[in-house]
Every structure is written in C-alpha cells, then in structure tokens.
Write a structure and sequence with these properties.
two-stranded antiparallel ribbon; single chain
C-alpha cells in the first residue's frame, strides 16, 4: 500500500519536474585565455604572511566567528564549492542566491564561481563522471578538498559522485577541466599535499550538503540507479548533512516524514540529518541572499548551534530557510579552516624537505 501511494504521488510530480529542464550549456573559456586563467588558480597564485598563516593555524574549526572570517580568513583561499542545481530551470537561480548569501557572509566568490564562465551552478543532468573529474582537477590545482552543495536532484547527483569516487560504481575516472569542459587524457593527479601520483578513484570531498533529494524524483529514469542506495553515504566524504522537510512531494520520501529520509554512513563518513520546518518550500529554501539585509538574522546565523530539529528564530521578520543557511554556513566555515590548515601545514613541511 505504501509503495502504491508513493508512485501515485511520484509519477505526476515527476512529469511536472520534466516540464522545465534545468540543463544549461557548459560554455568553455576562450581558447586563448585557458592557460592564463589556469595560472591564477594554483597554489602559487596566493601568498599569505607568516603571521596570517599562524593566526589561521590557531583557529578552532568548531567555533569560527564572524570576526575570524572577516579578519583572519580575509584574503585567504577557500575550498572550491561545487553547486549542483535541480532539474527545473528556475531552481538554478535559488542556488545562485544561496551562493550570494555565502559570499555576503564572507566566503570568497572566486571559490564558488566557475573560473571559465563565472557560473555559480552546474545542472544535475550533467554526468556524475564530470563532477568527479572536476573534484580531482580542483583538488590538484588548489590543494583543498572541494565542497558539494546539491539541491533536489542535485542532492541525488552528489551521492552518485560520492559513489564514483569511492570506487563503488567505477574503476577509473578521468580528470575533467572546468575551463574547457572536456575530460583530460589521464586518470591520475599529482597530490598537491604530498607530490605523489593518485588515481581519481579514491579521492574525496570535505563536505556535502544535500537538500531535498528523493521523493517523486526517484521515479525519473535518470535516478533509478539510486533507488536502493540513495541514503547510503560512502567514505569519499568527511562530513555529509542531509536536509529534509515535511509535505515535500518532490524531494521527501513518504512526503518527507520519518526515518526513510535519513542518510546513513557506510563507514567513516560523519553523517547528520536535519529536519527543516514543514512550512519551508522544496524549491525556495536556498533563496537566502535577502537575509543579508537583516542584521538580526545574520547575528542569529553567526551564533547558530546545530540541532537535528532546529526552530526558526521569532520576531526578526521573514526568515524562512534560515536554518538551512545557518547549518550549511557553519559546516562550510569548519571545512574552510580544516582544509586551509591542512594545506598550510603541508606547504610548510614540503618547504622544510620533510
């Protein structure tokens, strides 16, 4: 009976989702500028003073304040954020809004935009192999494990990428260049922290935020391969947070209620599940740049303490979606510091010939 109810809801919603495809052409950088742009992305393209490095190494990743972001981390590189938007064309702008929200809180815009064409997001309909190859390329060039933020079908695509990197669904993966949008003729990178060769399979990301993955979109043919594995998180990510909300036909299993929406770790990955208020919207939740003009909302975000069932603050205006923004921002800050500290220590060790 439950299965019959699920598909009764899923099939009409899936047809609706297909009505406005969110796939956009990946425009390569001008051929004459590829080498020039690539030269601005490597670890040699930035310089931090010894004093700033020391201050960064002294930060506690679990308690990164707004002062830390604005003063200590200002001007420092940050892990690449790969945003994967859902299947509807209009949801792309919601993750663009979310990127601007993170930028307003202090995250470098350069780390969120494609270096070739300046786009903030990539469609969930691009091949998972492309995303895995991009992760390898960015890690090799920037020295920090990337972050993935997936919305709706983008959340499901993020899980597919993790499965590829973990070797569960691929033996070899090509490196993909985000400037040309073409695979390179290699399946290994030079690890920027050790200088040793490493295959793309076996690499990972530091953090994944998955919002509204599941529900009616499970019925789409491109998602059938995740039917029984969507909620299993492999070891190719350090921290994974799944966000779900009630009455979510498009992205919630059993309408977004209960443990069917919970992601589970397959091993080392640290997995959290956050139930958002049921009055949030599947499509609109990431559209948060409007909060940047609300000082009280920003103060609440910067002081947010994670919880499995947090509640919105009251009396500070329309803040729908704020829990998602605050929870992701706290994790993004944590991994910004962790990855940057790891890179600084590795660079210092290599400079001393260790």
């Amino acid at each position: 009976m439950k299965r019959r109810i699920f598909f009764t809801l899923a099939l009409p919603a899936a047809a609706l989702a297909l009505a406005g495809c969110g796939k956009f052409d990946l425009v390569p950088a001008e051929a004459g500028r590829v080498a020039q742009i690539e030269g601005t992305l490597g670890m040699r393209s930035w310089r931090l003073s010894r004093g700033q490095e020391d201050r960064i190494l002294a930060l506690n990743p679990e308690r990164v304040t707004d002062h830390d972001v604005r003063r200590t981390l200002a001007g420092a590189p940050a892990p690449r954020i790969i945003n994967i938007h859902g299947g509807l064309a209009r949801v792309q702008e919601r993750l663009v809004s979310f990127s601007k929200f993170l930028g307003g809180l202090g995250y470098p815009g350069k780390a969120m935009r494609n270096p070739g064409n300046g786009d903030y997001t990539i469609s969930c309909y691009e091949d998972a192999e492309l995303f895995a190859g991009l992760i390898a390329w960015y890690y090799e060039h920037e020295g920090m494990q990337p972050v993935m933020i997936g919305h709706s079908q983008g959340a499901m695509q993020a899980v597919k990428v993790l499965r590829l990197l973990a070797g569960l669904t691929a033996k070899q993966l090509a490196v993909w260049n985000p400037l040309t949008w073409q695979p390179e003729t290699r399946t290994e990178i030079s690890d920027p922290l050790t200088g040793k060769k490493r295959p793309v399979v076996g690499l990972g990301v530091s953090y994944v935020a998955a919002l509204g993955g599941g529900g009616a979109t499970r019925a789409l043919p491109n998602q059938w391969d995740l039917m029984f594995s969507l909620r299993s998180v492999p070891n190719s990510v350090e921290e994974f947070t799944g966000f779900y909300l009630g009455f979510d036909v498009l992205g919630g299993d059993y309408l977004g209620f209960g443990p069917a929406n919970h992601f589970r770790s397959m091993g080392r990955a640290k997995v959290r599940n956050v139930q958002l208020p049921a009055y949030y919207s599947h499509g609109m939740t990431p559209q948060l740049d409007r909060l940047l003009s609300n000082p009280r909302a920003i103060e609440w975000i910067n002081n947010y303490v994670p919880s499995s069932e947090p509640r919105d603050p009251v009396g500070i205006g329309d803040v729908k979606g704020i829990i998602f923004g605050a929870d992701v921002w706290k994790s993004v800050k944590r991994h910004w510091v962790i990855e940057l500290q790891r890179l600084i220590r590795a660079r210092r060790a290599m400079s001393h010939g260790r």
